[in-house]
Design a protein that fits this description.
Number of domains: 2
Strand order of the largest sheet: 1-8-5-4-2-3
Largest sheet: 6 strands, parallel
CATH class of the largest domain: Mainly Alpha
Shape: globular
Number of helices: 17
CATH architecture of the largest domain: Up-down Bundle
Mean pLDDT: 95
Bound molecules: zinc ion
Low-confidence stretches: none
Helix content: 40-55%
Distance between the termini: 45 Å
CATH topology of the largest domain: Dehydroquinate synthase-like, alpha domain
CATH superfamily of the largest domain: Dehydroquinate synthase-like - alpha domain
Structural class: alpha/beta
Length: 339
């Protein structure tokens, strides 16, 4: 694509030359990742910030506590990537991203996910100068973290359907048939590459990044991501609200795709097959929730999206009935039996 907003460099052993290429780094990371990778950072006078929260109020104070750096590197998962954006934006310095796992697509998004109490809001507008995809580092990440990245791709199955409904009813988010078609093509390719993704090899990892980047380039132009983030994410947020628990993003999103694809009557069996092949566990045990938590998250979904003023989707267009919930929960237990 011409005029890329998200330049990506693929390779191995990229961290050392990046840091050596210029002075004055602030590295935003977490203690576990830093312990693993600090040996690759030879330069002195590096400043390191360990991210603990994405609570908006707290972070607005945190980003004033270190000054004098000339660029920021987000080194880690979604929280490090998002916190690095806040630092770079607050002090107006260039931003670099080197994800250590592909669990979410935060390193390829111009907004940052920040929290106000339990509600996640996407805010800001900052592009990275460069994204470094280091296969040595990614292959060493725990496999389930990279697998989790499937969630934000499979979410396109339900989200793109929501986008169509939104475009027909409220038109609150611009629709583009070409992006919609590309999204369906990406889902077909996901099926092709899924075995490589499960093997955690370079081919699979490269596909996840390429697919994320495709979404990101369009979303920067469109100023929204309705084809990637729809009712399946709303279900996940509602489950998080009800249980007060934190989930591996891809697991909870795939659970949402399971239920919402059925609710939309949209390629549900395709979703089931892809989730099974992805080896992301979506049983209640795997998510450490009860079947009743899931029941409540479904039964209160209509009310949740209305109260939170979430953009129009199937959750506004159709009422969840207790009969439907019991039928889909029975199917869910057959499709994904407890171990
Ligand atoms: Zn997501």
């Amino acid at each position: 694509m011409n005029n890329e907003n998200y330049p990506v460099t693929y390779g191995r052993n990229l961290l050392t030359p990046l840091i050596d290429s210029k002075p004055g780094w602030l590295i935003v990371t977490d203690p576990v990742i830093w312990e693993k990778l600090k040996g690759q950072v030879k330069q002195e006078h590096i400043r390191v910030y360990f991210v603990k929260t994405m609570d908006k109020q707290t972070m607005m104070e945190e980003v004033k506590t270190i000054t004098g750096f000339t660029q920021v590197l987000g080194l880690g998962g979604g929280m490090a990537a998002d916190a690095a954006k806040l630092w770079a934006a607050a002090q107006q310095t260039p931003l670099y991203q080197l994800p250590t796992a592909l669990s979410v697509n935060a390193f390829l998004c111009y907004k940052a996910a920040v929290r106000y109490d339990h509600v996640v809001k996407y805010e800001g507008d900052i592009l990275p100068r460069e994204i470094l995809i280091d296969f040595d580092i990614l292959e060493q990440a725990p496999r389930h973290l990279n697998l989790s990245g499937v969630g934000d791709l499979l979410s396109c199955l339900t989200a793109s359907y929501d986008w169509k409904i939104n475009a027909l009813i409220t038109k609150s988010h611009a629709f583009d048939q070409r992006i919609y078609d590309e999204t369906q093509e990406m889902l077909s390719l996901l099926a092709e590459y899924l075995d490589d993704i499960v093997k955690n090899n370079e081919t699979g990892l490269r596909f996840i990044v390429r697919a994320y980047k495709g979404i990101a380039e369009h979303s920067y132009r469109m100023r929204h991501t309705m084809w990637e983030d729809g009712s399946e994410h709303n279900f996940f947020m509602n489950l998080e609200r009800i249980t007060g628990k934190k989930f591996l993003h891809g697991q909870a999103v795939c659970l949402g795709v399971y239920f919402l694809s059925a609710f939309q009557d949209n390629q549900h069996e395709r979703a089931v097959s892809l989730i099974k092949r992805s080896q992301l566990a979506i049983t209640p045990q795997a998510l450490n929730v009860s079947l009743d938590d899931i029941r409540q998250a479904l039964l209160t979904l209509n009310r949740f999206v209305r109260e939170q003023h979430i953009r129009y989707s199937i959750c506004n267009a159709k009422e969840v009935t207790p009969e439907w919930v019991e039928a889909i929960l029975a199917k869910y237990q057959r499709d994904f039996p407890a171990a």
